[in-house]
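Data card: per-record layout.
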Amino acid sequence: MPAPRVKSVFVGASLAIAATVIAVSGVTATSADAVESTIEGSAPSAITSMWAWGNPIDPATDARGLGQPEFEPDALVAFAQAHGLHSVYLSVPWAANQGAFATWLPEAVNALHAAGISVSALGGDSGWATQPSLAAQWVSDALATASFDAVQFDVEPWAGVPDPDLGAIVTQYTAMLDAAAQVANGVPIGADLPWWLAAKTVGTGTAFDAILSHLDSVAIVAFSDHAAGSDGIVALAQPAVTAASASGTPFTIGVETDTPAVAGGAQYTFGDDGADVLEMETALVRSSFSSTTGYHGVTVEHLIAWRKLLGD
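The structure for this 312-residue chain is written out next.
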């Protein structure tokens, strides 16, 4: 059975209560410092980056538009600076170099750069795994549109498949990454990979290892609403973290803030827990991994949901 845990809804509580929660949850005692600093507000957030799915384009002028003002360049910069972000994964549609996107994307990227924030072109379709030329075309168009620092793939050919053939999928996925790298001209290639790929054997290693060798960075997706315990973020991510660190691949840990309905259950998201719990639990994640080579913080899924959680 999983170790018992107590959800950390105790921001502003005494350190005695916090220490009790740590003891019950199973997080190591060294995590007390992270909890104390977060409670007292003396430490920056463990969250260093975010997935930003959306755009401000008027759908009346472009069918790809979503009309979200949160994605206007000034609004993006203000939010990223307010939350101390180092990096933003900014969603890029197909044919980014056409229509209103050809104006908005460079403006947004340049504004974030001016604030000292790196920007990755974020995108993906599960079909790209079997049609790598499409991934390559998307990358080519994205990099021709704006001065992105990196490319971040969110391609999930295993999604919704009860028993995916990971041997075949890994072969296809890595071919897609290689095709993208050929047109990226040295721009780093990253991807979002679920934690469980590190538990699946492919060839002489794991599915995670096989894909990792084709990446320059990775966001390890470990969706849970708590850090500790056998079903917590730290335990879920640990094998992938170990592999990424051993290979010298920079990594972040991905967490969810969307609604339980979107996330597939309340246990996978902070969407029903509140911003304080998000900060407290990610501080525990940082405490567990901050000394691990390659660790670059926590990435939040995603801008709109996170803003709702914050009450913005």
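Known properties of this structure: DSSP finds eleven helices and ten strands in the chain. The chain has one domain: 42-310.

See the next section for split statistics.
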